[in-house]
Design brief:
Elements lengths: L1 H18 L13 E10 L1 H15 L9 E18 L5 E16 L5 E14 L4 H33 L1
Parallel strand pairs: 1-2
Antiparallel strand pairs: 2-3, 3-4
Helix pairs in contact: 2-3
Length: about 160
């Protein structure tokens, strides 16, 4: 009886593995750009995070002769404000605002391909341990950078479709 159970489980398991063999991602980008030059202004750490996400996406086009050469300027600022305080003045909640001005220009003609301002905010509560509060702040910043990157890709895809 145990052998039959093991055989049935093995068949079901192999069926599930075989069903996943034709996996294709739903959202794929075919952006034909290659980054020739870039500059980062204001908060260089946050700007570099956005740039490296773009660079990793576009580095597959480095040898593509049909890819449009572009220059990117990223100007990112972060504001952290206290939003909620208790009666003694102790801060209970913060809001982080991430502003990113991203300008993408054609390298050869210097024409603007994209000039967009992305502004997003996130709120988080102060934790009992300061290290936990810092972790929440870093997670909020990471989420805001990912949101900026995703919306930038959507804008760039829209630009390509309208050309």
């Amino acid at each position: 009886m145990k052998k039959i159970t093991y055989i049935i489980i093995a068949i079901i398991f192999l069926t599930f593995i075989n069903a996943c063999a034709g996996y294709k991602p739903i959202y794929t980008t075919n952006l034909q750009f290659k980054i020739v030059d870039y500059s980062i202004k204001s908060n260089k750490k946050l700007g570099r995070q956005i740039y490296y996400k773009l660079y990793n996406l576009f580095k597959s086009n480095q040898n593509n002769a049909e890819a449009q050469s572009v220059t990117i300027t990223i100007d990112t600022t972060k504001n952290k404000d206290a939003t909620v305080k208790d009666s003694t003045g102790k801060i209970l909640e913060y809001r982080i605002i991430l502003n990113s001005d991203i300008i993408i220009k054609d390298y050869l003609t210097n024409d603007e391909v994209l000039n967009q301002n992305f502004s997003y905010s996130s709120m988080y509560k102060v934790q009992d341990l300061h290290s936990e509060t810092i972790k929440l702040e870093n997670k909020s910043i990471k989420d805001l950078i990912n949101k900026t990157y995703q919306d930038l890709l959507i804008k760039m895809s829209h630009i390509i479709q309208t050309k």
